[in-house]
């Protein structure tokens, strides 16, 4: 008894008499094989016509002419590049309609004979969604072009170039076309030259791809797939039966192409194919969700077999209804059966929504579409699902979805994608599966998943991965939390929609809450809620923010933070993420001078530096909101409002720069402070530029140096340690000089920020004159005082002041001291190292025409004779106790063992007894010895010059204080 289908697209009736059985043991009837092939071709004709009808009138010519374009290499047809390009499609003869289409496209076209030459192309096929329920206006065409295996390399390159030219022609018609050129036998053996489907996942799957090809493929021209003729129940014996068909000439061997069987799909493919679908699902979730679930279904229910075998089995059984055989209908039926058995109604509902949205057919607006067979089939399925018109309209009105609607659906999608990824990972671990995907591709996919879905502090969540066309709002209201009753101390912000009357805030739902206004604005900007047409309302409460300031920040985001409309490139994902663009908002909703204004205090000096403003040296940078767009297209917001905000921000930006020193991020400073915005922007822009240029000169680095910044009468020293930036905060100038004197592991010059220590320009001059691998003495004389700087071989800076009587009395002791240290250091070295001693130079800072300059001075110890006896100190280290010194005054010894705590007074008494005049002028140490175990954890063969100077300065201070006290 026959059964008539109620679905459209029926080209035959299914009856037991229509079933085709092939018994290879008893012999095969060639007429039966021909009837079987014709049955597949009948289904193929319906699908091809449906694929054609889904295209616009202009695009239909692509489907019509593809076989003819590759059959003859005619200059009038699209894609022609070279007269030597291989052409000819096996067993293809264009019909009158195809020739007429060619002449409409090119009036000069005339068909000409190709002679008796062997065709270069064995087959042309379309695979994927064309001609199926899942085809939408956004779908592309993936074409397999299989050339003859004997084609030479030059011919293959010409054919590939022509395929690219044809794709460009289709693109000019608004159609995305991909033509993949390969050999069928190479594909069967896994040796394909290129990835052979539109998803570039050839390294991730083979049998899954072949399964999709056999159940979705449309034969355009050339040889038929041999797979059609092997019964589904005999797939395990495919090779033997295919050989039998060819060997005994049951079929013309040149009329069929053999892509191979689809046996039980190896588990090794599931992880690679699944991760790739996760990759695709980030940007196009509907199709990928269906494929991911099918992969999981295949992996869990291996007895059911691939869908392509179910498709072939139905055709053998007599089913020729194109709707019942539709690949997406069969996919849904398989998933629905499996998920129902798994008792997963929520996942099944997501499958239904995905399929509905994948088709792109709005059933509540059918008058706007011309896809009759799709709409009829979809209506039948929706009726079986039990959807009411309200649910259908909700999906059809995606253009009206708002942030809340999208967030709910996105959470479901992310949960499903995460579930799939975890399942596939467990599968690989449980069965010790090696994924059929290159490690490079696996890392790439993992990084894209991380960039899209990983939650981390400050990262802005993109809630609309192609779920709704737009989330733009007509009216948005920003309320400071202090405007809410009972929350007057709150600093957060609330976002409302269509709130014309602020009093209605208590009754309206909150779109978003955030502790940072900038984070809220960036979230709105990146997710498309804010447009230039959006009306804004503001209730700033206790914050000083104005509506103009709010609009200004939004304009800054729209101008300076482009939202990526495509995923990050493969090249970007294969490299470590790095910041591309940094937008810094200063003092958002903060008045940096509020406390002074309340007290009635105003600017009291001419200082305009925003980090040390006015006589009070106020830091006008109170808060910073850092918005970062990185190379993985992640957007993050970090707020600095506690502690040393600016220095912390600088440190973090430098840390991000280390990964790619040659590619600095674009840094943009924005401030909407009514009084000092422009000066703050200029000051910070200069500071960030100077700091980056110092540490990464020549786009290399980080270079070893110490960068000094002055802020609010405090000093900060930025420095890299083992590739990581850090800073030290110092409360006074004395603390700064003490820090700069510390020993360094290698040459580490000091760079002074252009606005730091402005009252002491000499220090900046000294630091700029610093050179490695020598010892430099600089001095400046003002009236009866001298200032002395010594920069040693590693750039450590020692500084002190002393009474000035003459240059000889100033320089002789220090030069003798430094020469003694250098001489002793050289004597400890081997003869092979002779000649490598450090130079000691001397220079004076003087003013010429109002400018400070450095002039070289004679600094040799031989040219600067000393009066009186020399003073030498020899240090002793006893365990963890501080270093103690024996002091030699000429030949007279004063030891710690003998004098103990009275050592300094004893030396002072002796010095005064040797001075005939009784004067109390300063005493200077001309030599000093230190033990090599100053650091109890390590033996130091060569101590740094600054270490000797530190002890010299301290000892001289004690001695001279004693001399003054004794007068």
From TrEMBL:
Protein name from the UniProt record: Class I adenylate cyclase
| Residue span(s) of domain Adenylate cyclase class-I N-terminal | 33-228
Q: Which organism is it from?
A: Marinobacter halodurans
- Taxonomically, the superkingdom here is Bacteria
